[in-house]
């Protein structure tokens, strides 16, 4: 039988006739065969279950295979394992002794404490109650030992070190005592205080989540009833002046008498909805940009269902970015504009710039701003654990069946990259404690996802994530045009985020280096969202800049070493950079008095389309 175990142990069998080793081999092979049988049983049981798709099955089996290979690798390296086991036994012994001393009334230092930012054990009973303090420390000791053991493992022929660490972390964190009602003192107190009603409330919350998301069980992360798009979020005044089958284009009302002559177009990601840049007036980048005197336009993408299965990545360029550029020029009677691209919107912006340069039309864009954008996908961050031939092949099969990639499943995958904060915290709050999460605009947006067209998603995952062809000159072809980022000479501003786990800043730096023109690279604090949505009124994360007169170093680490840290928001820094490229001041442009007819008020109808509406026959 061919298996990961039998293949990787072949050389070891040739080198050793040791009876103990032979016994280990037999045990491993038996475990391998049992796992294969279990897999076949799951495939049979779930063959007719529409709630479980090929991609989910693939991820599950990848996880199972990873656990098997982890056990094998640990068995093959007994020296490393034994050293960590000895330290584990010492820590456990110290914990037992310390707990006994504490029971006698003595003051003792903890053997181990939760990591900074770990909020699972914040309740006072985890420290003050002897039993729960022991449970907490015992768990942390064992969890740390397991994670450190796995972190020593190297890539194998079938699995990567990142997979080993990711799937082990998922298991270890899932088994936290904070997730078990009988071991969580906060949950037990809640049951006592409510006389058991919290159990019923938790069951009710669980049922509501399942009913609203059958087969997916996305946990409610905020009070959905507290928000309405166009009412208390996405409220910056504007008009929809154009739409096609893929997008609506919004032009915002000016708030100043004079505006910069060069208009500003924003290309947001279609993986999420555009109003991440327009949540509330106090943290709306769109409103802030309008207040600075920019005539702002933004694309609002349609939420695709099965009817958009054949929409290609290049359609997002031809009907999206290129069409938006054409319409903005027509609406303002200008020959050039400044463009911002966020996340995959920035990836599209890079492709669009390369396309325009190839056709001698690059003068339509005065400057390009990339917000947390991947152009080089060689190191995509933690999401890379899902990027392999086996998983993507199964995703492709699923996309061929459905015609779209469900945005709720994608949101779940991203949440599991920060599982304790974005999954298990809500699991405990909603289901174990029976409470409702508070209203939070950012989490409402995070839960208001979008689907992805099948053809586009297949192309994006394979050609960019898996094969990393965008960074290669002529690696991809869009609209019969080879795309070469190295031909881009347009002045560019790259904004990345230091703690971004979706678009790692070191990888975005490689994309910036691919350009041939003037490039300004800025590194914000925090992550993929908070690092971008960091208004001057808050400005709590700060940002780093590099000598504007110097060329970017070849390596990101060298850039960081010689960068300068600034307090506050990066927004004013960008405004100072864009101002010389924004032209002189002219009389403000109002969409009602523009050259194109108004179709409806902002935020438009496309952004209000929810997933359930577009996938329900």
- Radius of gyration, CA atoms, in whole angstroms: 27 Å
Classified by CATH, the class of the domain at 238-383 and 451-601 is Alpha Beta
Poorly predicted spans: 1-28, 34-52
Which fold name is given in CATH as the topology of the domain at 238-383 and 451-601? Rossmann fold
CATH superfamily of the domain at 238-383 and 451-601: Alpha/Beta hydrolase fold, catalytic domain
Percentage of residues assigned to helices: 40-55%
- End-to-end C-alpha gap: 45 Å
Describe the structure.
This protein has helices spanning 4-8, 10-15, 19-45, 54-76, 78-103, 125-128, 130-151, 161-174, 185-193, 197-212, 285-291, 313-332, 344-358, 389-402, 407-415, 419-432, 441-447, 454-466, 505-513, 556-561, 571-578, 611-615; strands at residues 238-243, 247-252, 258-260, 264-267, 296-301, 337-342, 365-371, 404-405, 452-453, 477-478, 481-482, 492-497, 519-524, 543-545, 564-566, 585-587, 600-601. The chain is of the alpha/beta class. Among the domains are: 4-77; 238-383 and 451-601, Alpha/Beta hydrolase fold, catalytic domain (Rossmann fold), CATH 3.40.50.1820. The strands form four sheets. An eleven-stranded mixed β-sheet has the order 15-14-13-12-7-6-4-5-2-1-17, sandwiched between helices. Strands 3-16 form a two-stranded antiparallel ribbon. Strands 8-9 form a two-stranded antiparallel sheet. Strand 12, helix 19 and strand 13 form a beta-alpha-beta unit.
């Amino acid at each position: 039988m061919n298996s990961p175990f039998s293949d990787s142990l072949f050389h070891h069998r040739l080198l050793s006739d040791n009876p103990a080793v032979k016994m280990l081999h037999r045990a491993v092979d038996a475990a391998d065969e049992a796992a294969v049988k279990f897999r076949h049983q799951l495939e049979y049981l779930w063959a007719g279950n529409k709630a479980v798709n090929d991609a989910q099955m693939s991820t599950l089996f990848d996880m199972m295979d990873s656990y098997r290979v982890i056990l094998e690798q640990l068995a093959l390296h007994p020296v490393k394992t034994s050293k960590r086991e000895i330290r584990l036994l010492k820590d456990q012994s110290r914990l037992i002794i310390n707990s006994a001393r504490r029971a006698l009334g003595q003051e003792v230092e903890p053997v181990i404490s939760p990591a900074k930012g770990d909020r699972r054990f914040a309740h006072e009973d985890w420290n003050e109650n002897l039993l729960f303090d022991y449970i907490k420390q015992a768990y942390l000791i064992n969890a740390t030992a397991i994670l450190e053991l796995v972190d020593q493992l190297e890539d194998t022929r079938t699995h990567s070190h990142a997979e080993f660490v990711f799937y082990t972390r998922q298991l270890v964190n899932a088994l936290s005592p904070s997730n078990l009602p009988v071991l969580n003192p906060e949950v037990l107190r809640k049951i006592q205080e409510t006389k058991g009603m919290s159990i019923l409330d938790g069951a009710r919350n669980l049922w509501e989540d399942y009913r609203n998301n059958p087969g997916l069980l996305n946990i409610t992360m905020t009070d959905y009833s507290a928000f309405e798009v166009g009412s208390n979020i996405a409220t910056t005044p504007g008009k929809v002046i154009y739409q096609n089958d893929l997008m609506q284009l919004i032009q915002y009302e000016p708030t100043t008498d004079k505006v910069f002559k060069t208009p500003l177009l924003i290309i947001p990601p279609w993986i999420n909805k555009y109003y991440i840049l327009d949540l509330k007036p106090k943290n709306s980048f769109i409103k802030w940009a309008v207040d600075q005197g920019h005539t702002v336009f933004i694309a609002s993408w349609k939420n695709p269902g099965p009817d958009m299965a054949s929409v290609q990545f290049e359609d997002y360029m031809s009907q999206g970015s290129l069409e938006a550029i054409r319409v903005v020029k027509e609406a303002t009677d200008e020959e050039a504009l400044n463009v911002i691209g966020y996340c995959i919107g920035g990836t599209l912006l890079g492709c669009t710039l390369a396309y325009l340069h190839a056709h001698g039309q690059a003068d339509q864009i005065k400057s390009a701003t990339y917000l947390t954008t991947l152009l080089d996908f060689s190191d995509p961050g933690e999401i890379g654990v899902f990027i392999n031939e086996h998983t993507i092949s199964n995703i492709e099969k699923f996309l061929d069946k459905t015609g779209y990639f469900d945005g709720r499943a994608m949101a779940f995958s991203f949440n599991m990259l920060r599982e304790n904060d974005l999954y298990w915290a809500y699991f405990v709050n909603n289901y174990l404690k029976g409470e409702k999460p508070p209203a939070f605009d950012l989490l409402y947006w995070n839960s208001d996802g979008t689907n992805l067209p099948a053809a586009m998603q297949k192309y994006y995952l394979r050609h960019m994530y898996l094969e990393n062809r965008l960074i290669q000159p002529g690696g991809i072809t869009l609209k019969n045009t080879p795309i070469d980022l190295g031909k881009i000479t347009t002045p560019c501003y790259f904004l990345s985020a230091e703690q971004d786990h979706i678009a790692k800043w070191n990888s975005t730096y490689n994309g910036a280096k691919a350009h041939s023109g003037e490039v300004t690279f800025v590194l914000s604090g925090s992550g993929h969202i908070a690092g971008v949505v960091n208004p001057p009124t808050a400005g709590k994360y700060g940002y780093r800049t590099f000598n504007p007169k110097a060329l970017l170093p070849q390596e990101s680490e060298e850039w960081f070493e010689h960068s300068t840290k600034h307090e506050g928001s990066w927004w004013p820094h960008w405004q100072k950079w864009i101002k010389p490229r924004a032209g002189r001041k002219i009389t403000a442009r109002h969409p009602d008095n523009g050259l194109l007819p108004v179709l409806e008020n902002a935020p438009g109808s496309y952004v209000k389309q929810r997933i359930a509406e577009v996938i329900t026959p």
